[in-house]
Amino acid sequence: MLAESLDVKTSFVIWSIVWTVILNIPPGSTQIISAYRLNFMHGLLSTIVAFMCMFGMLHEDFTSMASITYFIVDFINIVMNDFIWKAKSYQTPTARKVEYFHHFLCGGFGVFCQLYYREVCTLDQNPFIRFMLAELSTPFLIAWRYYPHNALGVVFAVLFFCVRIIYHGTVLIPSCMQSCNYTVSLRF
């Protein structure tokens, strides 16, 4: 299995470097196009590595770190852009608050799953990996923002609905609810 010998810490470092490099390719981390590029690449790579893991080609620790580190790197970047560099955002102030919450929630869920899913779930694999499939629609959202063609918007909307509403809402979340005992006291 590819990346089986990599531990969580090494995987964290590798993915942190990947996301930081992608973010800082010119014109640099303060530019909107760089944020688009990072979001696009996360949507693409996290979906690919999630599928590869689900089919036994990648280790789950390496796979889950792909998205966990993205949420950390991008969160740090938006904080720096908002409060240090005062860079222009592609988000409205309200949408930016939602983006902060989204990063905190998704990154926190990823970390929780990485640390505790074996203790609270009977699943054979970290459930966060299947939640990473939500990013399947992201490259189309970013492409639609950059190239506002109706076809890209339609592809984004259809994928978003199929993956995030139908798959997550009717298959994945109910499966996790049945397979995980979230009332178990965790040892912190």
Radius of gyration using CA atoms only: 17 Å
SSE order in H/E notation? HHHHHHH
Based on DSSP secondary structure assignment, what is the total number of beta strands?
Answer: 0
- Amount of beta strand: under 5%
From the spread of the alpha carbons, the general shape counts as: globular
Low-confidence parts: none
Mean model confidence by pLDDT: 94
Q: Count of helices?
A: 7
Biggest β-sheet strands, sense, barrel: none
Structural class: mainly alpha
First-residue to last-residue Cα separation: 31 Å
Helix content: over 70%
Give a written overview of the molecule.
There is one protein chain. This protein is mainly α and 188 residues long. The chain has helices at residues 8-24, 32-54, 60-84, 93-120, 127-131, 138-146, 150-179.
Features:
188 residues; mainly alpha; 0% strand
How are the elements arranged and paired?
Elements: H1 8-24, H2 32-54, H3 60-84, H4 93-120, H5 127-131, H6 138-146, H7 150-179
Helix pairs in contact: 1-2, 1-3, 2-3, 2-6, 3-4, 6-7
Summarize, please:
With 188 residues, this protein is mainly alpha-helical. It has helices at residues 8-24, 32-54, 60-84, 93-120, 127-131, 138-146, 150-179.
